[in-house]
Design goal:
Helix content: 10-25%
Structural class: alpha+beta
Largest sheet: 2 strands, antiparallel
Strand content: 25-35%
CATH topology of one domain: Ribosomal Protein L24e, Chain: T
Order of helices and strands: EEEEHH
Oligomer: single chain
Shape: elongated
Distance between the termini: 57 Å
Length: 97
C-alpha cells in the first residue's frame, strides 16, 4: 500500500538536495505516517487508518469523517470490509407433502 495519508492525501514528495556549490542531487521527503485504530461512535465500530501525525491534530478537533470530507478524501477508506468466507443465509424452500 502506498505511503499516503487517508485524511489529507499527502504522500512522498520529491525534489533536489542543493549543496553549498549548488550541485543538485535527487532526494525524497517521506510523510510521517502512523497506523491508528479510531472508534466511530455513530457506527459503533473501530476503524484502522493510516494517517499522518499532522492530520491527527485535525482529527482530535473535527472527528474522522469531517476531517476526511474537509481534506478532500474519500469515505471509502473507512467503509467496512466484506466478510471473507461468510455466506448469506439461504431461505429454506417449502417441500410438498
Amino acid at each position: 500500500m502506498a505511503r499516503r495519508c487517508v485524511v489529507t492525501g499527502r504522500g512522498t514528495a520529491y525534489g533536489n538536495a542543493v549543496s553549498h556549490s549548488h550541485l543538485k542531487t535527487r532526494r525524497i521527503w517521506k510523510v510521517n505516517i502512523v497506523t491508528k485504530n479510531i472508534f466511530l461512535e455513530d457506527e459503533n465500530r473501530w476503524v484502522t487508518v493510516k494517517i499522518s501525525t499532522r492530520a491527527l491534530r485535525t482529527l482530535r478537533k473535527k472527528g474522522l469523517k469531517a476531517a476526511i470530507k474537509d481534506g478532500g478524501g474519500s469515505l471509502a477508506a473507512i467503509r467496512p470490509k466484506k466478510y471473507v468466507g461468510v455466506k448469506k443465509a439461504v431461505p429454506k424452500q417449502k417441500t410438498k407433502v
